[in-house]
From TrEMBL, chains A, B:
<protein>
    <submittedName>
        <fullName>Mannose-6-phosphate isomerase-like protein (Cupin superfamily)</fullName>
    </submittedName>
</protein>
<dbReference type="Pfam" id="PF07883">
    <property type="entry name" value="Cupin_2"/>
</dbReference>
<dbReference type="InterPro" id="IPR011051">
    <property type="entry name" value="RmlC_Cupin_sf"/>
</dbReference>
<dbReference type="InterPro" id="IPR014710">
    <property type="entry name" value="RmlC-like_jellyroll"/>
</dbReference>
<keyword id="KW-0413">Isomerase</keyword>
<dbReference type="InterPro" id="IPR013096">
    <property type="entry name" value="Cupin_2"/>
</dbReference>
<dbReference type="InterPro" id="IPR052044">
    <property type="entry name" value="PKS_Associated_Protein"/>
</dbReference>
<dbReference type="GO" id="GO:0016853">
    <property type="term" value="F:isomerase activity"/>
</dbReference>
<feature type="domain" description="Cupin type-2">
    <location>
        <begin position="39"/>
        <end position="92"/>
    </location>
</feature>
Amino acid sequence: MDKVNLAEKLSLFSDHWNPRIVGELNGQHIKLAKFKGPFVWHHHEHEDELFLVVQGTLKIEFRDKTLELQEGEFLIVPKGVEHRPVAEEEVSVLLFEPASTLNTGNEQNRLTRPSLESI
Amino acid sequence: MDKVNLAEKLSLFSDHWNPRIVGELNGQHIKLAKFKGPFVWHHHEHEDELFLVVQGTLKIEFRDKTLELQEGEFLIVPKGVEHRPVAEEEVSVLLFEPASTLNTGNEQNRLTRPSLESI
């Protein structure tokens, strides 16, 4: 059992759309990721998903609106809701979601990361 | 579905050791709390608990050591592990834990908050 420093963990990787696991509790993962550019439209059949912006600005597009999150803001995307994260500039994000969650949800493509590294 | 600004939510209350619910996903709660002074020694029988410092410094005492968390640092306290949060100065903390989690765990006393307000 030791503490986790978000900035320190974020300094360990630089690639985009490849979340790292930095904590696990109650069957849930705490992940850190860097996003840049547009992701893919997807939804998660069974998992609600939380995005907390650690640094930068993150847009999350929905079919009927777009929400913009700044540092210190989070959004919970309920299961089943189609969304697409978009980052005009690089953004660092903390994710909180069940260990079973696949990053691209129902869409399997080149951005899908079936197994994530723990750092 | 709307975003949550941590600073804005924290401005809505000033009492200590009385967590507010600011989000719910997958049977887990996202809570915000302000701590000041020493809490009580306790453990959670069934729940791991995450403390993420939003502002200030938080010490978490264990029977064999003390960890000090600064802003941007988190700690997961596994179920069953006795701990006591202590804040020499006021600290703002984000908690991730199952909706079933009672703040004082196995100890029922004047600090116990059986039902929490959502803000």
